[in-house]
Design goal:
The complex is a heterodimer. Helices cover 8% and strands 29% of the residues of chain A. Chain A is mainly beta. Chain A has a 5-stranded mixed beta sheet with strand order 2-1-7-5-6, covered by helices on one side. Chain B is an alpha/beta fold. In chain B, strands 1, 2, 3, 4, 5, 6 and 19 form a 7-stranded mixed beta sheet that branches. Chain B has a 5-stranded parallel beta sheet with strand order 8-15-9-10-11. The mean pLDDT of chain B is 91. Classes of the chains: A mainly beta, B alpha/beta. Chains A and B meet through helix 1, strand 4 and strand 6 of A and strand 8 and helix 3 of B. Chain B: Keywords: Oxidoreductase. Chain B: Pfam families: Fer2_BFD, Pyr_redox_2. Chain B: It comes from Nocardioides marinquilinus. Chain B: This is NAD(P)/FAD-dependent oxidoreductase.
């Protein structure tokens, strides 16, 4: 098994170690937020870190609303930040 | 696809592993369902299968392996719906969407969508209890348990200058873990006062191992010259799109903020935890009776064999009251023994009595711990009208206040309906306690009814409409 996985975040390269969650890989890369809230347009990233809070949602290989803290990083994985409009709108 | 078992254990942390081992070793056919990929739960989270394990984990892991096919471990699956009955039924869905997890979860396509069992042992664990504070939605503010999970799973540091704050002994291992991984802990803030332990010396003395554990953390903190700031809280988190500093305040003996004592500390990580909230989704779904524990959290009521008041449904671990891994292991074993005895298996009664004594001893310790680390009476004082209470729906303290004062909401359920507080993705798991507290009369702690109304969730985990449609009649093909 390779000791380095190559992913992308919105097309930009991102590396991860095997066994790491997507959220951990983003954190080690210095990325702290990847979602924008619907109402306030505020940045969000990891909060509970264990799958409870759903703050860290992002798009993984085209599948929306995935918890970055739970998704294991895989070579070739395409991550996309969740723009405000995808989260729907209240107002 | 439905598979049938004697016992279904939900949660493969300390309690669930112990329950599965106890029931399996007495001859029952067991399924152990867990959302995680590996056994161990949050407490025994580890980076790889060959990582050096805790001795208690290693023992349970070895015994589970020795049971072979008698215990089926269904990993990476969450229970989204439970039906109590004869038999009970659990509906499962993959924790991570199978479309993106194909080569990582070889079990996923073989996992049953539904399991049936004559007895359920529910060991769902818990997560950090949170109180809102201005600025806590900024990236860089995390639950203490999340900071710990990153460290345990992959040695990932969530920041380099950390403030660890809240209440309870769990703050110590989080601070020690950050220090060992190379972060600076600029402030370790405990809202309570350790002298509170003196109030119940018997509870503490009953579990001497805990003192040794605390001493080890204290040594790490001392080596890095980090002192525990008692009666100290984070009253504000500052930053534009990320944490840059926090404001600390001091509490008086009544747990109220002392005016004029605040200091500002630069930080890029804030780890918050106010004790724990038990995961009660499945237990409230089957209608099990609940009560408010010494720490103010809602927990499930069990008898001296870990049975709830719902026939054939048992519970162990944090769901019955937060008390740590040793208590969870003892409760799990007791639940497994009870399930075996209730199914007609021979059980060593001397062992049952011994485990029961262990449970009582650790319960006494937990009660002493809870009384020493209460949620401070004054926590609402540092909220502002624009402080977000519900992170999902972005409902502010001001909106909750308006619902109570102007719209006449007198309970948490009405606050929810009027404001959408607790109705987002997390279904009130994060803001439930705070919502219940804000709905309570000034100065009062949340009532059992208010805590129940924020703990009730019709689905225990989000599922797709397709899964929902398939699950309605219990058939999936």
């Amino acid at each position: 098994m390779t000791d380095r996985l190559d992913l992308t975040l919105d097309g930009a390269p991102l590396t991860a170690r095997p066994g790491q969650s997507v959220g951990a890989a983003l954190t080690e890369a210095g990325v702290r937020s990847w979602r924008t809230t619907r109402r306030g347009g505020r940045p969000r990233g990891l909060f509970c870190g264990i799958g409870v809070c759903f703050d860290c949602l992002l798009v993984v290989d085209g599948v929306p609303n995935q918890r970055a803290c739970l998704v294991p990083a895989r070579d070739g994985m395409r991550l996309e930040t969740t723009p405000r409009e995808l989260g729907g709108s209240d107002d | 696809m439905t598979e049938a078992f004697d016992v279904a254990v939900v949660g493969a942390g300390p309690a669930g592993m112990a329950a599965a081992v106890a029931a399996g070793e007495r001859g029952l056919r067991v399924v152990l369902v867990d959302a995680g990929r590996r056994t161990g739960g949050q407490y025994w989270r580890r980076p790889t299968d060959d990582a050096e394990p805790d001795a208690r984990f290693a023992d349970l892991h070895r015994r589970l392996a020795a049971l072979g096919d008698a215990v089926r471990h269904v990993a990476g699956q969450q229970v989204w719906f439970v039906e109590a009955g004869e038999p009970h039924a659990l509906h499962l869905s993959p924790t991570v969407d199978a479309a993106i997890d194909v080569d990582l979860a070889p079990d996923a396509d073989r996992a049953p969508a539904r399991v049936e069992a004559r007895a359920l042992v529910l060991c769902p664990g818990g997560y950090d209890r949170q109180l809102p504070v201005p600025g806590w939605t900024l990236p860089g503010v995390m639950a203490a348990g999340g900071v710990q999970a990153l460290l345990k799973a992959s040695g990932t540091l969530a920041g380099s200058r950390a403030v660890v704050a809240g209440t309870g002994p769990f703050l110590l291992p989080v601070a020690a873990g950050l220090l060992r991984a190379g972060a600076e802990v600029v402030a370790l803030c405990e809202a309570g006062s350790p002298s509170g332990w003196a109030r119940t010396p018997r509870g503490v003395a009953a579990v001497p191992g805990k003192a040794a554990e605390a001493a080890a953390y204290a040594a790490t903190l001392a080596r890095h010259r980090v002192r525990l700031r008692t009666r100290t809280v984070v009253t504000e988190v500052r930053g534009d799109d990320h944490v840059t500093s926090v404001r600390l305040g001091r509490l008086d003996r009544q747990g109220r903020l002392r005016p004029g004592d605040g200091v500002e500390v630069e930080a890029d990580l804030v780890a918050l935890g106010w004790g724990f909230t038990s995961s009660l989704e499945l237990l409230t779904a089957v209608g099990a009776a609940t009560r408010v524990d010494d720490d103010g959290s809602l927990v499930v009521v069990v008898d001296d064999g870990q049975r709830t008041d719902v026939p054939g449904v048992l519970a162990a671990g944090e769901a019955t009251g937060v008390g740590g891994a040793d208590l969870a292991v003892a409760e799990g074993e007791l639940a497994g023994l009870t399930a075996a005895r209730d199914a007609g298996c021979a059980v060593d009664e001397a062992r049952v009595r011994s485990v029961r004594r262990t449970v009582r001893r650790h319960r006494a310790f937990a009660a002493a711990m809870h009384r020493a680390h209460p949620v401070p009476a004054g926590w609402r004082e540092w909220l502002r009208p624009d402080t977000v209470v519900c992170r999902c729906e972005e409902v502010t303290a001001g909106e909750v206040r308006t619902a109570c004062d102007d719209l006449g909401a007198a309970d948490a359920r009405t606050v929810k309906l009027l404001t959408r507080c607790g109705m987002g993705w997390c279904q009130g798991r994060v803001c439930g306690y705070a919502t219940a507290a804000l709905a309570a009369p000034a100065g009062a702690t949340p009532s059992a009814d208010d805590l129940r109304s924020v703990a009730r969730r019709s689905l225990a985990a989000p599922v797709s409409l397709g899964e929902l449609a398939r699950g309605v009649d219990g058939e999936d093909d």
